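User: For my dataset I need records formatted as: sequence, then structure tokens, nothing else. Please produce one.
Assistant:
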Amino acid sequence: MPRTAPPGHTPRFTAYSARFPEGTDAFVFAQYGCQAPSRVEAEKAAAALAGLFTGPDGPDGPDLVDRGSFVDTAGAHNVVLLAYWYDPSRHRRWRESEAVRAAWERVPVLGPVGHWREESVIPVERNETLHTHRREDYATSGLSQSGALELPETQVHDYWGAARDRIAASATEALEPAMPVFEPKDPAGHGTRGRRVSVAVPGNVALIRTAQDWSAGRLYRETYLADVKPVKDRGVDFLAENPGSGCIAARNLVEESADGAPLDRACTIAWFASLEHLMTWCRSHRTHLDIYAAFFRMVGGGEGPLDVAFWHEVSVLPSGSVTAEYVNCDPRTGFLPLSPTT
């Protein structure tokens, strides 16, 4: 039941939230990125890793793999493989397999290309999703694209604080951050090029993947691309460039097919110091309020059912559930602005 909804609240539109199969306690979301001065170099490095996600490990490979690319705040091109496992034990076997271990150990510590991976074991009770469309009506990317998950309608949305209310653990846990204030280190203060670096990720950081899919859009496609997407992009740029927001890293990805062709989809993946930092930006910062207003202007001015799909996944990660490793990466990458441990 919603705990912060206004009395008598009725959502303005229908939305859906993922339900995992009974007995599912956790799942894995892994990002494997290749960072380079040029897109060609990043694509070549990603191609060398891509086979690990489709074989040769068979049943232990990921259940779902998406792909995207972005240019980071240092101007480097990043190609990222986004993989999901519904069974963490299968991910563990995959990660510890000879093929995967050897491939990761072989990535070069010197040269123009950097590699990074951020793997999260996410308790189901610390995750929530929200979708504007049913999977049967609009097949998109992300966690809920698999038929293993149901997407029932939810009434817990369309008010500030709904995301927290959809996280089951928030009913009994405060989800207070181990790092209340994010203060990034000076990039010049610690060298990460030419090194393999692991970072101890603080407990209760928040992870969001929020996506937009206009591949089937007819009525709303042009309005979204002209009036909403640019506002969204400015908001992501703000997060990426302003750590005072509590955002540790923000990536504005163009989603791609397995061979790197751009799709009519995009997603933002961002790490925040806490769920409260994420929610504060959403409900009170001008950049997000502008996104919110642009979305509802688009929906209010339409002449039919919304045919651009939106969804998000938000998770709050307990201590020890995130592995963050960087090889020959720019010091502004991911969690590297925190103090590296090795």
